[in-house]
UniProtKB/TrEMBL annotation:
It comes from the Eukaryota. Gene3D superfamilies: Thaumatin. Belongs to the thaumatin family. The lineage of its organism: Eukaryota, Viridiplantae, Streptophyta, Embryophyta, Tracheophyta. Residues 1-22 form the signal peptide. It comes from Stephania japonica. Pfam families: Thaumatin. This is Thaumatin-like protein.
């Protein structure tokens, strides 16, 4: 009988650490219609009304997001198209989605071992969303306004409402070029989103009022149409 090597013990310890610190995400569809939930990392899944999708995300994951796709049609091989949030025509997303789409964004175990999370409308809006911890250690956030119904004419898109950066692609709206500084101000068009969803990102430099934290190791619930 041989004894385990130090490398073997280290690998087992690392796997245990990663598993123990993985965050669980529950993605729930409360919309009165089918959505095709998408996650990066995570892939994608069809969710009929009332259905839930559960998956784990490893500690240390950064730049992750969850969103809903609407009016999709996929064949048996998982290829097709969605009206909003499409990710390269794949049921199992391998990258980010196409605007307009409401985003739940997060980084796990970041600075000071905190999770950072937000709801972003920088890629526009397609369905209302709640993004909350499942415990009571920190507060959740919600964007439940009728943004599609109230969307200005120049921002309207099939199935959603575009952010002005997507439509106009200017430095002013996208905070690029001469506006690529911390003092890039909100615009009248970004304020349309901020007035209706004060906790959500309305334009790229909207950090102070739109980024939230929880202790590392927190689990989360994302609800479409809360």
């Amino acid at each position: 009988m041989s004894f385990p090597t130090l490398l073997h013990l280290f690998l087992l310890s690392s796997l245990h650490f990663a598993f123990a610190n993985a965050a669980t995400f529950d993605v729930v569809n409360n919309c009165p219609f089918t959505v095709w939930a998408a996650a990066s990392p995570g892939g994608g899944r069809q969710l009929d009304r009332g259905q839930t999708w559960n998956f784990n995300v490893n500690a240390g994951t950064a730049g992750a997001r969850i969103w809903a796709r609407t009016n999709c049609n996929f064949d048996g091989s998982g290829r097709g198209r969605c009206e909003t949030g499409d990710c390269g025509g794949l049921l199992e997303c391998q990258g980010y989605g196409q605007p307009p789409n409401t985003l739940a964004e997060y980084t796990l175990n970041g600075f000071n071992n905190l999770d950072f999370f937000d709801i972003s409308l920088v890629d526009g809006f397609n369905v209302p969303m709640d993004f909350s911890p499942t415990g009571g250690a920190c507060r959740g956030i919600r964007c439940a306004a009728d943004i599609n119904g109230q969307c200005p004419g120049d921002l309207r898109a099939p199935g959603g409402c575009n952010n002005p950066c997507t439509v106009y692609k200017t430095d002013e709206f996208c905070c690029t070029g001469s506006f690529n500084r911390d003092d890039c101000p909100p615009t009248d068009k970004s304020k349309f989103f901020k007035d209706r969803c004060p906790d959500a990102y309305s334009y790229p430099k909207d950090d102070p009022s739109s980024t939230f934290t929880c202790p590392g190791g927190t689990n989360y619930r994302v609800v479409f149409c809360p």
